[in-house]
Design brief:
The structure is a homodimer. Helices cover about 40% and strands about 20% of the residues of chain A. Chain A has 15 helices and 16 strands. Chain A has an eight-stranded parallel sheet. The first copy, chain A, has a three-stranded antiparallel sheet with strand order 1-2-3. The longest helix of chain A is centred in the C-terminal third of the chain and has 27 residues.
Chain lengths: ~375, ~375
C-alpha cells in the first residue's frame, strides 16, 4: 500500500472480515461506515459530534467542492481537513458518479465529461487527470479513481462498454496520481449485474495495482437481492489484503448483508438525509417521527440507545420540533442516526472478532421484525 | 420575593448594578442576557451549548408554546424544562406582546384578547387568568404579568389608556398567580415615551407588589435616544431591591446603555436570528459573512474570541457554508453570537464590580468605532 498506509485483518468469520486501516491521520476500524460530508460539512453536525458517534473517516464530494468553494481555493486555505475542521481521514469520491447523474447537462467522451454547474451553469471538464488534481488539492487521504457509473438496468453490451472505459480511466487515474506518500488511491470495479464483467473489471484493476478496491455501480436503485447476488461474488475477485469499499451503501440491512459478503467500507447519505426529514433508524427499523402517534409520547426514540438525543429528549419533543421546522430537529435526529449506524458497525466488528456473526445477524433481523414499540 | 427566590446586589457603579438572583433552579448573574427559546429551542443550538456560552436563564414564548405543542401537553410531559432539556431557570413572557402584533387577527377587550392562531387559524383567548394558567402549566420560573404593549409613536391619551388597562391586568395577573413557592411573578411597566405615565405605571405596580419589575413597551422600533430618554428615568421609579428587566433589548450598544441606566435583565432574538442570516456580532461591530470579501479569508471572525467557531473555523469557511445553505452556518454563527453577548455581559458585570464601568464603556465604543478588520 501507499507509504504511511497499512491494512491488517485481525479476524475473519465466513466471508466477513474485521481489521484496521492505518493512515497518517489515524486508524479506520473495519468494517467502517463513512458519513457523507458533501460540501465540507456532515450536514447538521459539528465535526466533534461526528467523531463522538464513532466515525473514523468521512467522505467528501469532489463534484460539490470543485464547484463551490473550488478545489484551488480550498488548497490555498490549507486543504479540506483544516477548512472543515476534521483532522481525521477523509475519502473523496472522483466526481464521476455525480456528474453522470446530470443527464442532459453533460457530455461524455473518451477524454472525460464536460458538464454545466448546477449552481451557476458554468462549463467544467472532469477527466481522470482533473479528478486526481482536484482530490490532491483537497488533500484527500483516500483518493478514488475516476469512473463511469451506468444506470441499471442496462444491457450486457452497455455494461461492458462502460466498464472498459472505466478501466482505461482507472489506468489514467493511476498514472496521474503518481506517487504520493501518505495518500492512497482506490480503483473502482464496475460491470453492473454481470458477474463475468465484474471478474474482468477486477482483473484489470489488479493489473494496474491500487491501495484499495471499490465496488461501484451498485446501490443505484436495483433491488437488494440483485445487489447481494453481485456481492456473493465481487468481493472474492479482489485481493484479500486490500480494503474493499462498497460505494453508496446503504440501509442497515444492506450494510449487514454487505459485511457478511466480505465488504470492509461503506458510505451513504441515508442517516444524515433521513435525519433532516424526520426519519430515525433504530434497532427496530425506521421510525417516522412526524407521525401523530408520537405527539405525546414521553419515551425516547430507543430506550437502550446512549446517544445524546435518546438520553435527553422524548419522542414528543422530536415530533414537536420537526413539526415546528426547528433546526434542532435535524441536529438531534442526524446525531441519533449516525450514532446508530456507528453502533451497528461496532457490533458487526465485535461479532466478527468473536466468531459470532451469524448470531449477531439473527438478532439484528429479529429485532427489526418486531418493529417499533407499541404506541402508548 | 417569592419563596426560594432572592436578589442580592453586590456592587453599584453610578446607576448600574451587579448582583445575583437566586432561584430553586440556579443563580442568575446580573446584568443578565437571556437567549430566546421561542418554541422550546434556542434555535440552532443544543441546550448544553447555550449553557456553555454562559447563559444562566433562557426565555420561552407563551404565544408560540400555547399554540404548538400546547401548554397542557407540555404539562403532561413534565413541564417545559424537561421537554426542552434545559434544567436551569426559564422566564416566560405573557403572550401579550406577540398577540398584540397580530394586527387584524385579534380583538382586544377588557377581558383580554381573542385571536386566530397563525398555524391553523383556530380561535384562542388570552387573558391575565389564562396567561397565568399557561405559564403555570409550562412550569416557568419567572412568570410575566399579562399586558398590552402599544405601538410607538402613540398619543399621550392612547398611551395612558393602554397603560391603565395593563395595570388592571397586572392586578388580575397577581390575583390569578396566587402564591406559588419557587416561582416568581414580574409586573410590567408601560407608558411608552411618557415619563409621567411611566411614573404612574411604576406606582401602580409597586402598590400591587411583584417579585421583579419589567420595563415594557420599548424596543418596538423607536430610535435609541428615545429609548435611552425613558431609561434615564424609568429604572429609578422601580424598587432598588428587585430585579429590573428591560424586555426585547437589544443590540450590543443598547445593552450597554441600558445597563448604564440601571437595568438588570434583558432578552432579544438578535444574536440567534442574526446567526441564521449570516450576521455576526463582534467587539468591532456587525460583520456580514455573506460578503464576498470573506470568501478566501483564512482568519477567524475574531482572533481574540474563545468560542468554538472562532477557535476552529475561518471566515472563508463560514462564508462558504452560508452560501451553500448549510445548517452548520446557523449553528456556528448562533454559537458565536450568543458567546459574544454573554462575554459582553460578563465584562459589564466585572466592570461594575471593579467600579470601572466608564472605562469599559469607552473601550467598548472605541473598538466598535474601528470597525471590522481590513480585508486581506
Amino acid at each position: 500500500m501507499a507509504q504511511g498506509f497499512g491494512f491488517t485483518l485481525t479476524a475473519r468469520n465466513g466471508a466477513a472480515r474485521t481489521g484496521v486501516i492505518t493512515t497518517p491521520r489515524g486508524e479506520i476500524r473495519t468494517p467502517a461506515f463513512m458519513p457523507v460530508g458533501t460540501a465540507g460539512t456532515v450536514k447538521a453536525m459539528l465535526p466533534g459530534s461526528v467523531r463522538e458517534t464513532g466515525a473514523d473517516i468521512i467522505l467528501g464530494n469532489t463534484y460539490h467542492l470543485m464547484l463551490r468553494p473550488g478545489a484551488e481555493r480550498i488548497a490555498r486555505l490549507g486543504g479540506l481537513h483544516r477548512f472543515m475542521n476534521w483532522e481525521r481521514p477523509i475519502l473523496t469520491d472522483s466526481g464521476g458518479f455525480q456528474v453522470m447523474s446530470l443527464a442532459g447537462l453533460r457530455k461524455l467522451t473518451e477524454e472525460g465529461v464536460t458538464f454545466a454547474s448546477h449552481i451557476d451553469g458554468a462549463r467544467h471538464l472532469l477527466s481522470p487527470e482533473r479528478s486526481m488534481e482536484i482530490q490532491r488539492l483537497l488533500g484527500s487521504d483516500i483518493v478514488m479513481a475516476f469512473d463511469e457509473c451506468p444506470a441499471l438496468p442496462a444491457t450486457e453490451a452497455e455494461l461492458a462498454k462502460s466498464m472498459r472505459l472505466s478501466m482505461r480511466w482507472a489506468q489514467r487515474s493511476r498514472d496521474a496520481f503518481g506517487d504520493r506518500p501518505g495518500h492512497a488511491l482506490f480503483g473502482i470495479m464496475q460491470g453492473g449485474t454481470s458477474i463475468a464483467l465484474r471478474a474482468e473489471s477486477a482483473e484489470a484493476l489488479k493489473a494496474i495495482g491500487f491501495d484499495g478496491y471499490a465496488i461501484g455501480g451498485l446501490a443505484v436503485g436495483e433491488p437488494q437481492e440483485e445487489m447481494f447476488a453481485v456481492l456473493d461474488h465481487a468481493p472474492g475477485f479482489l485481493p484479500e489484503d486490500r480494503p474493499r469499499y462498497l460505494m453508496g451503501v446503504g440501509k442497515p440491512d444492506d450494510i449487514v448483508g454487505a459485511v457478511l459478503r466480505g465488504v470492509d467500507m461503506m458510505d451513504c447519505v441515508l442517516p444524515t438525509r433521513s435525519g433532516r426529514t424526520g426519519q430515525a433508524w433504530t434497532r427496530r427499523g425506521a421510525v417516522n417521527l412526524r407521525n401523530a402517534r408520537h405527539q405525546e409520547d414521553p419515551r425516547p426514540l430507543d430506550a437502550q440507545c446512549t446517544c445524546p438525543t435518546c438520553r435527553s429528549y422524548s419522542r414528543a419533543y422530536l415530533h414537536h420540533v420537526l413539526r415546528a421546522g426547528e433546526i434542532i430537529a435535524s441536529m438531534l435526529l442526524t446525531w441519533h442516526n449516525l450514532h446508530y449506524f456507528q453502533e451497528l458497525m461496532a457490533g458487526l466488528r465485535q461479532a466478527i472478532a468473536d466468531g459470532a456473526l451469524a448470531a449477531f445477524v439473527t438478532a439484528f433481523h429479529t429485532f427489526r421484525a418486531e418493529g417499533d414499540i407499541e404506541p402508548l
